[in-house]
Write a structure and sequence with these properties.
There is one protein chain. By secondary structure, this protein is an alpha/beta fold. It folds into 2 domains: 157 residues, Alpha-Beta Complex (Quinone Oxidoreductase, Chain A, domain 1), CATH 3.90.180; 134 residues, NAD(P)-binding Rossmann-like Domain (Rossmann fold, 3-Layer(aba) Sandwich), CATH 3.40.50.720. It contains 10 helices and 18 strands. Strands 3, 5, 6, 9, 10, 17 and 18 form a 7-stranded mixed β-sheet that branches. Strands 13-12-11-14-15-16 form a 6-stranded parallel β-sheet, with helices on both faces. A 3-stranded antiparallel β-sheet has the order 2-1-4, with no helix packed on it. Helix 3 crosses helix 9. The chain is globular and about 60 Å long. 47% of the residues are buried.
Amino acid sequence: MLAAVLHGMNQEISLEERPSLIPAPDHTVVSVQFAAMNHRDLWIQKGQYAGLKYPIILGSDGMGTVEGKQVIILPGMDWGDHEAYQSRTYRILGLPDDGTFAEEVLVPTENLFPKPDHLSDEEAAALPLAGLTAYRATFVKAQVQPGESVLITGIGGGVATLAMQMALAAGANVYVTSGSSEKIEQAMRMGAQGGVNYQDESWPQALKKMSGGIHKIVDGAAGRSLGLAIECLLPGGIAVNYGGTTGPIEIIPQRLFWNQVTLKGTTMGSKSDFAAMLAFVGKHKIHPVIAGVFPLDKINEAFAFLKSTAQFGKVVLAIPSL
């Protein structure tokens, strides 16, 4: 099989021929048709991720076929018995297990779900990791309700964009942040009430003025921006964080305790969360936004595009047929 392999930190991806995969007990070989990229893949390439090992086939997201039936893959394995948190053995496809940037991938059979009928193949490949993370953050953790004002930070990223789509489908009033006015405008065309550019130092005041205050925050950046966003929360509000791209959270503690604010962390989600996410996406006919599709042999160009932060939505790889 053809596979895209990372051999070391800060190296380009190389295409290699590898032996075809052999099914294992309780595992299935999926013929991959499309895979999607995540910033997780970038962090691994940069050596900025826990549990690094090389060589590795990256890729957590994918859709393909098993005995002629189209499936999508739940990328998280061994969540464990507790819905509230993952087990110590929990891991994500693409490290330490070889992932979806190849013609075949071996996954636990229980991690395979039928491809949602309303999605294209590219959209189905783009959904799993970002959709699962967004669903758990938005509904399990933030408990977003119709009519609430919800802030989604860093719009344009895969998780943020799906979180916005889900919150809108649930009847929330969504506001966004971005460093790009064009991305804010695109979010508003998709239904967001408004947005602020976080490069403007006065953005918290502008956000409070346009929204009247925020009930819930879904954030993937952390850093100083999350602390500023929390200043926009109404009393009793909830802020949920699923990533730390801008570093440690900087919070004025009085904003938390005096306003009875709750700060929650989340990552990925359980098998039950994944099934609920698929049901929600199917009910509301949500389509992941695709920023670009690259053939597998252009994977390094796809990485460069992702690094540029120019994308709005997910970057997808088309895998050649066996």
